[in-house]
Write a structure and sequence with these properties.
The protein is of the alpha/beta class. It has 2 domains: 308 residues, Alkaline Phosphatase, subunit A (3-Layer(aba) Sandwich); 115 residues, 2-Layer Sandwich (Arylsulfatase, C-terminal domain), CATH 3.30.1120.10. The strands form 4 sheets. Strands 5-4-6-1-9-10-2-11 form an 8-stranded mixed sheet, with helices on both faces. It has a 4-stranded antiparallel sheet with strand order 13-14-15-16, with helices on one face. The longest helix is centred in the middle third of the chain and has 30 residues. It is globular, with a radius of gyration of 21 Å. The termini are far apart.
Length: 449
C-alpha cells in the first residue's frame, strides 16, 4: 500500500532576507532555529528579484519574472500571464485540499490562485492599510492556522500557504515608513549591530531596532504553527517550508540586486529527507522551490520551468549537479529600474539598462529614517551601466571592478552569460524599454477621458 501524500505548509514573510539568528545575525529567533535544527537550512538561497511580487511570482511558478509576466507589483497593475500555473494548481490536481492563510501578493484576482478556501480576503497589499495589517499580522494568521488544525478543518492531504505582513514597513502618522515600533517589542538602538553595507548612523540603528520587534513576532508565529502541527499529530507527514522573498527594507537591500537585496531565507523540514539539521551552502534560486516540492511529493515536474529540483541534494544516495550561477532581475517597482544580474560563488555582474541613481530606494525605504540618512548621497546620478564585484575581495559589493584590466576576462564572460540567459528566456528588455501596464492611461489626454 502506497504511503499517503504528505501535507505541505509553506510559511512566507515579507522583507526579511536572512535577518535571523540561524543565519548568524545577532538576534534570537529560537523557533525558526529549532525548525532548522530539525530540518535543513540553505545558506546561499536567493530570490529572483529584490522586490515582493516578482520574487513571489517566481516562488509560486518556478519561472523568472520576465518569463511569467509579473515584472512589477501586483497591486500596481502587473499580473501573471494568463496561462501561468502556480503551486496550488499543481497540488490541487494531485488531490490536495488547498488553503490560503494571510497574504499572497501575486495577483489582484484571488480567484486565479485556485485555492479551495481563502481564510483572509484582505490578502494582497501589505502596505499602508491598518485593516490589511491587522488581518495579516503574523500572530493573527498563525492563530487561525492553529485553530483550523486543532479543529481538523484541513483535509488530507492539505497544502497551506501562510503569509505574514511582517516585516514590511507601514506608513505612520508622521508620514515616515517605519516598522510600527509601538505595536511590537522593539530593541534598544544602542545595542544592535550595524549593517555591514551601510554607515553606522542613528536613523539606521533606529529602524533596525524597530524591525527586530517584527522579526520576533514572525518567530513566535512560526512557533505557534509548529506547535499546532505537533499537537495535531501530523509532524511526520508534513513538509514544512519557511522562506521569504527578498532582503530587508533598507538602502542597498530591498530594491537592489546586491546580495542584501536578493538574499532569502530557506528552511525546510521533512522527516526522512530533511530532518538532521544539515546546513547547505550550494547556490539555490527560489525558482527551484516549486520543482523541489513537486519532486518530494512525487508529482511530475512540468516542462518549461526555469528552476530545477534540489531534492537530490537532500537525498544521501543521489547525485546532485550543483548550480554554478543564479540570476536576478528588476524592472518596475514604484519607478522604472531595469536591471539584470548574474551571481556565481565568486562574482556578481550587474547590468543596468537605464539612467539610474547611484542606488535605487523604493518609496518605503526612501521615506524611512534609514533612507533619510543616505538618500541624498544615493540619489546622485548616475549608476554605471556595468558593475562587477569580486565577492571574495569585496563581499559588501562596494568596489566596482568592471573597468579594471585584470578583471576583463571575467567581465566579458559573465556579460555573455547574462546576455545568453536573456536571449534564451526571451527577455522583453532586449527589445528596448518596457512600458508599465497603465501606459494607455498615462498617454490619455484629459479631454479623452
Amino acid at each position: 500500500m502506497a504511503a499517503p501524500q504528505p501535507n505541505v505548509v509553506l510559511i512566507h514573510s515579507h522583507d526579511l532576507g536572512r535577518y535571523l539568528g540561524c543565519y548568524g545575525v545577532d538576534i534570537e529567533t529560537p523557533r525558526i532555529q529549532a525548525l532548522a535544527d530539525s530540518g535543513a537550512l540553505f545558506e546561499e538561497h536567493f530570490g529572483t528579484a529584490p522586490q515582493c511580487s516578482p520574487s513571489r511570482g517566481s516562488l509560486m511558478t518556478g519561472r523568472y519574472p520576465h518569463v511569467n509576466g509579473l515584472m512589477g507589483l501586483a497591486h500596481g497593475d502587473w499580473e501573471l500571464d494568463e496561462d501561468e500555473r502556480i503551486l496550488p494548481h499543481y497540488l490541487s490536481e494531485a488531490g490536495y485540499e488547498t488553503h490560503l492563510f494571510g497574504l499572497q501578493h501575486i495577483t489582484q484576482d484571488t480567484d486565479r490562485l485556485g485555492f479551495d478556501r481563502i481564510h483572509s480576503e484582505k490578502n494582497l497589499y501589505p502596505g499602508v492599510s491598518p485593516a490589511v495589517h491587522e488581518a495579516n499580522r503574523a500572530r493573527t494568521v498563525a492563530e487561525v492556522v492553529a485553530t483550523c488544525l486543532a479543529r481538523e478543518e484541513l483535509g488530507s492531504p492539505f497544502y497551506a500557504s501562510v503569509g505574514f505582513f511582517e516585516i514590511h514597513r507601514g506608513k505612520e502618522a508622521s508620514g515616515r515608513f517605519g516598522f510600527l515600533g509601538e505595536e511590537y517589542d522593539t530593541d534598544d538602538p544602542k545595542h544592535v549591530n550595524p549593517l555591514p553595507y551601510l554607515p553606522d548612523r542613528w536613523g539606521i540603528r533606529h529602524d533596525l531596532a524597530e524591525m527586530r520587534g517584527m522579526v520576533y513576532a514572525v518567530d513566535e508565529a512560526v512557533g505557534t504553527i509548529l506547535d499546532a502541527i505537533a499537537d495535531a499529530g501530523i509532524e511526520d507527514e508534513t513538509l514544512v517550508i519557511f522562506t521569504t522573498e527578498h532582503g530587508i527594507a533598507f538602502p542597498r537591500a530591498k530594491g537592489s540586486c546586491y546580495d542584501p537585496g536578493i538574499e532569502a531565507a530557506l528552511v525546510l523540514r521533512y522527516p526522512g529527507l530533511a530532518d538532521d539539521g544539515e546546513v547547505y551552502d550550494e547556490l539555490l534560486s527560489n525558482v527551484d522551490v516549486l520543482p523541489t516540492v513537486l519532486d518530494i511529493l512525487d508529482i511530475e515536474i512540468p516542462d518549461g520551468l526555469d528552476g530545477r529540483s534540489f531534492r537530490p541534494l537532500l537525498a544521501a544516495d543521489e547525485a546532485y549537479e550543483e548550480r554554478n550561477r543564479i540570476f536576478a532581475e528588476m524592472t518596475w517597482h514604484d519607478m522604472y529600474n531595469p536591471v539584470r544580474a548574474i551571481r556565481t560563488d565568486r562574482y556578481k555582474y550587474v547590468r543596468n539598462f537605464w539612467h539610474l541613481p547611484k542606488v535605487y530606494l523604493s518609496a518605503d525605504v526612501f521615506a524611512s529614517e534609514a533612507g533619510r540618512e543616505v538618500r541624498e548621497h544615493y540619489s546622485v546620478p548616475t549608476r554605471p551601466y556595468e558593475e562587477l564585484y569580486d565577492l571574495q575581495e569585496a563581499p559588501q559589493e562596494d568596489n566596482n571592478v568592471a573597468f579594471e584590466p585584470r578583471y576583463q576576462d571575467v567581465r566579458i564572460d559573465l556579460s555573455r552569460q547574462l546576455q545568453g540567459w536573456m536571449e534564451s528566456t526571451d527577455d522583453p528588455l532586449l527589445d528596448g524599454p518596457l512600458v508599465p501596464p497603465d501606459y494607455d492611461d498615462i498617454q490619455r489626454w484629459p479631454h479623452e477621458s
